[in-house]
């Protein structure tokens, strides 16, 4: 099996029975904030896109690059489609010209022509990507590969049960806006960022240990930030709280925990994988490339500057009445929402900075009141501040997912009182009836379901499944004193009260091992 690195989470997998192109991303994403690093725009995409199969893991724009898919990927390719709860991915790919689809049953091995086997695991929580994320397992002639990209399954047992894996591709770096955009003292940002960076690596080590593959390939991150306004987010400033460590940092940190089987793929790197080993060739020496990281970024910044400026020029739509358009689009969804509206539990404020950089219009999405209205000087627990032009653009194009656009762009600042509230972001990625109804149904189902199985962790008996996203706490749970941490997403719980310390809701059932449990 031959794997060609094509940048970020993208790769081309070649076997004698067919080729698969995964997650090709080249064009800037999220309001021209994210660019692939190392740069992959100079690869021979005409040749790379001439494949038998296309796999897109999910709809995040650093995995689903519509312009690139339309121009460079063969429309004769069969799309390996995850079993997502909505038809959005298939609909978008059909609009781009793809006509052949293999709808893979979830977690079932499918044999393709020539003995090539694949299995796709689809994750379908409202918090998994834009209503879904997935991983791809591939086997040919006894060689097995898992492309986990940035999916976060509760465990990898479904893949391990299919036989020993020879190549494991997975995310290790950040792909979020926290804590950088929060209006906090720099010392607090650094501390929170360091915690998140450490949790990212801890989660990665756990996945690696679960699968025990022969070779580990760090992929799906980090992006680079080439706009001058966002340049500080690149991990080149000696900031221990930066959540975007690169592949060379991964190798260094992996070595600290005994990892010796890490393999970096630069764009154009080729790994030949067999059941007995792997050999990799690179377009340039890996260590040399990352030693010159700052120079590479500065060269990219100048080369991509016209692209960024052209994007910025397209955002303003002064003809859009933001308040009225938000009312038209969001208020019907507020009326439909039960679980998400209750979960948010209060008004969310948007401060929109006008073209002059000074005038601010404040708009409130009032979840209890089921309305969008001007801010009335009330207390809010969540506040976002961004350029009015960005909201104008989202409304102009009818964007249904403000997480997969505004929030991942990091082109905003945020403030909150109290804990993180996942329902805020879940709602703003569900700005369509189809998405909202799915999310409401998912939360309804999980609200009503019971988790009767208990396990013992240290001095405590706790429910086996994490209340957040049902991770198996026998694998991801760590108890320190009276506090439980689920390492899959870093969520913490006070065991004495059951209260979630990370977000509202999600109470855990627990009692001391030497005590009689009480019932509510």
Tell me what the structure shows.
The structure is a single chain. The chain has 520 residues and is α+β, with helices and mostly antiparallel strands. Helix content is 29%, strand content 24%. It is built from 15 helices and 27 strands. A hairpin with a 2-residue loop joins β10 (133-140) and β11 (143-149). The N and C termini lie far apart (55 Å). This is Rieske 2Fe-2S domain-containing protein. Keywords: 2Fe-2S, Iron, Iron-sulfur, Metal-binding. It holds the Pfam family SCP2_Rv3818. Residues 461-501 form the Rieske domain. InterPro entries: RibonucZ/Hydroxyglut_hydro, Rieske_2Fe-2S, Rieske_2Fe-2S_sf, SCP2_Rv3818.
Summarize the structure.
The protein is 29% helix and 24% strand.
The total beta strand count reads: 27
Question: How does the overall form come out from the CA principal axes?
Answer: globular
> What about the largest sheet?
8 strands, mixed
Helix content: 25-40%
**Unreliable sequence segments:** none
End-to-end distance: 55 Å
The helix count comes to: 15
Rg from alpha-carbon coordinates: 23 Å
Q: What value does the average pLDDT take?
A: 94
Summarize the topology.
Elements (H helix, E strand, L loop, with lengths): L1 E4 L5 E5 L2 E5 L12 E2 L8 H4 L4 E3 L10 H7 L5 E4 L6 H8 L4 E4 L6 E2 L5 E7 L9 E8 L2 E7 L7 H4 L6 E5 L14 H26 L3 E5 L3 E2 L22 H10 L13 E4 L4 E4 L4 H6 L1 H21 L8 H15 L2 H6 L2 E7 L6 E7 L4 E4 L7 E6 H10 L5 H7 L2 E5 L5 H7 L4 H16 L5 E4 L2 E4 L9 H4 E4 L2 E4 L4 E4 L15 E3 L8
Parallel strand pairs: 3-5, 5-6, 6-7, 11-12, 12-13, 17-20
Antiparallel strand pairs: 1-2, 1-15, 2-3, 4-14, 8-9, 9-10, 10-11, 15-16, 17-18, 18-19, 20-21, 22-23, 23-27, 24-25, 25-26
Protein name: Rieske 2Fe-2S domain-containing protein
InterPro entries: RibonucZ/Hydroxyglut_hydro, Rieske_2Fe-2S, Rieske_2Fe-2S_sf, SCP2_Rv3818
Keywords: 2Fe-2S, Iron, Iron-sulfur, Metal-binding
């Amino acid at each position: 099996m031959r794997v060609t690195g094509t940048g970020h989470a993208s790769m081309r997998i070649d076997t004698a029975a067919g080729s698969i192109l995964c997650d090709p991303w080249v064009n800037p994403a999220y309001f021209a904030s994210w660019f692939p690093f190392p740069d992959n725009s100079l690869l021979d995409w005409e040749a790379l896109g001439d494949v038998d199969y296309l796999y897109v893991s999910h709809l995040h724009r650093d995995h689903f690059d519509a312009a690139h898919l339309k121009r460079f990927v063969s429309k004769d390719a069969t799309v390996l489609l995850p079993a997502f709860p909505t038809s959005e991915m298939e609909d978008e790919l059909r609009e781009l010209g793809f006509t052949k689809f293999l709808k893979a049953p979830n977690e079932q091995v499918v044999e393709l022509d020539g003995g090539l086997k694949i299995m796709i695991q689809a994750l379908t929580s409202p918090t998994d990507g834009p209503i879904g994320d997935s991983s791809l397992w591939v086997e040919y002639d006894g060689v097995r590969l898992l492309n986990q990209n940035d999916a976060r399954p509760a465990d990898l047992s479904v893949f391990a049960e299919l036989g020993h894996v020879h190549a494991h591709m997975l995310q290790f770096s950040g792909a979020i806006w926290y804590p950088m955009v929060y209006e906090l003292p720099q010392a607090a940002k650094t501390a929170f960022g360091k915690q998140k960076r450490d949790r990212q690596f801890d989660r990665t080590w756990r996945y690696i240990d679960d699968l025990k593959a022969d070779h580990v390939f760090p992929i799906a991150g980090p992006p680079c930030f080439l706009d001058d306004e966002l340049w500080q987010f690149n991990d080149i400033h000696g900031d221990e709280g930066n959540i975007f460590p690169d592949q060379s940092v991964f190798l260094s940190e992996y070595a600290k925990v005994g990892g010796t089987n890490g393999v970096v793929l630069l764009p154009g790197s080729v790994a030949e994988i067999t059941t007995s080993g792997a050999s990799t060739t690179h377009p340039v020496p890996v260590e040399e490339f990352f030693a010159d990281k700052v120079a590479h970024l500065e060269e990219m910044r100048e080369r991509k500057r016209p692209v960024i400026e052209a994007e910025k020029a397209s955002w303003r739509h002064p003809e859009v009445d933001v308040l009225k358009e938000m009312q038209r689009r969001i208020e019907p969804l507020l009326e439909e929402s039960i679980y998400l509206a209750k979960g948010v539990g209060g008004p969310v404020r948007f401060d929109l900075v006008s073209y002059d950089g000074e005038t601010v219009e404040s708009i409130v999405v009032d979840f209890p009141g089921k309305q969008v209205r001007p801010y009335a000087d009330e207390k809010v627990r969540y506040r976002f501040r961004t350029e009015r032009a960005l909201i104008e653009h989202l409304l102009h194009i009818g964007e249904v997912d403000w997480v997969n656009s505004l929030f991942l762009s990091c082109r905003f600042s945020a403030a909150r009182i109290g804990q993180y509230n996942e329902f805020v972001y879940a709602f703003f990625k569900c700005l369509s009836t189809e998405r909202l109804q799915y999310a409401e149904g998912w939360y309804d189902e999980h609200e009503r379901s019971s988790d009767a199985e208990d396990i013992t962790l240290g001095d405590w008996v706790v429910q086996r499944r994490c209340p957040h996203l049902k991770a198996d706490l026998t694998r991801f749970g760590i108890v320190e004193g009276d506090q439980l941490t689920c390492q899959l997403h870093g969520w913490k719980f006070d065991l004495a009260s059951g209260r979630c310390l990370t977000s509202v809701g999600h109470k855990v059932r627990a009692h001391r091992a030497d005590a009689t449990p009480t019932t509510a």
